[in-house]
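Subgroup meeting minutes
Present: P.N., E.W., G.H.
Scribe: E.W.

1. P.N. recapped why we're keeping a running log of single-chain structure predictions: easier to compare across weeks, and new members can see raw inputs and outputs side by side.
2. G.H. added today's entry (307 aa).
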Amino acid sequence: MDPRNGTEPGTESPEEIHVPVMRDEVLDLLQVGANRNYVDGTLGLGGHSFAILERSAPEGRLLGIDRDREALRLAAQRLSPFKDRIVLKHATYDRAPELIAEADLGPIDGMILDLGVSSLQLDDAKRGFSFTQDSALDMRMDLEEEVTARELLNDLPERELEAIFREYGEERFAKRIARLIVRSREEGSIETTQRLCQIVSRAVPFSKGRHRIHPATRVFQALRIAVNRELDLLQKFLARPPDFLAVGGTLAVISFHSLEDRIVKWAFRSFERYQVLTKKPLGPSDGEVAKNPRARSAKLRAIRRVE
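Output recorded in log:
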């Protein structure tokens, strides 16, 4: 998703919003050209979409989908120069086939999915995605959804919490962390990011190598994935080939988690009538990582419809 410069949400200008992850690689794989039609299934702040709309001028059209209304609002501002060529929808990307039909775009020449949490969400303390600032435990990408991270932490039994931390966070100490969370909530519900951080730090034994990342990193990641059903959504989308693409059309997916990348890899290999364009996932250049450290774990895979 788009890296941002740390300004308050809604105050940045389009020029202040940084280049999206692996922009040039995405444009090349999608073979973006004049007057073609595209879908951005994870619109975010519109970084990939802006580049696609520029290169597909003068008549190329784009359907932008996002589950976060605030992201849609900011993206609409950024993409206003192309307002006659865009359709924006508040939805999840698994609904792309029906949304494409509703938008009546015509043949779809390419689609991009940039998975994971956006910098807009990470940098907004009120959303509760990051432990760098104390805030309420929310973590919903779509604020109209009902279940928050706070409810999972305070309502789920120990075994289910352990499974979330182990499966989605690949957390070695999932059992210890889940046990201490259950004990701690007997003293009062867990409401804030900092209280969760304190509990996790107490549960995880100190190790010099282990603490190259914050002890709570994997727990926060796991909770976010669970709250937003991220892997379920990806599996649902990839349960069928993207036959909404025209012959020669490309689907490109950027993932930031090994579980996501594994799902994408095996789905792509299973689709008939599609050519895998990336036998191994592409990663960001050293220069891009230097400018945007959040891009370091990005993996880009793509397939093209051949018949």
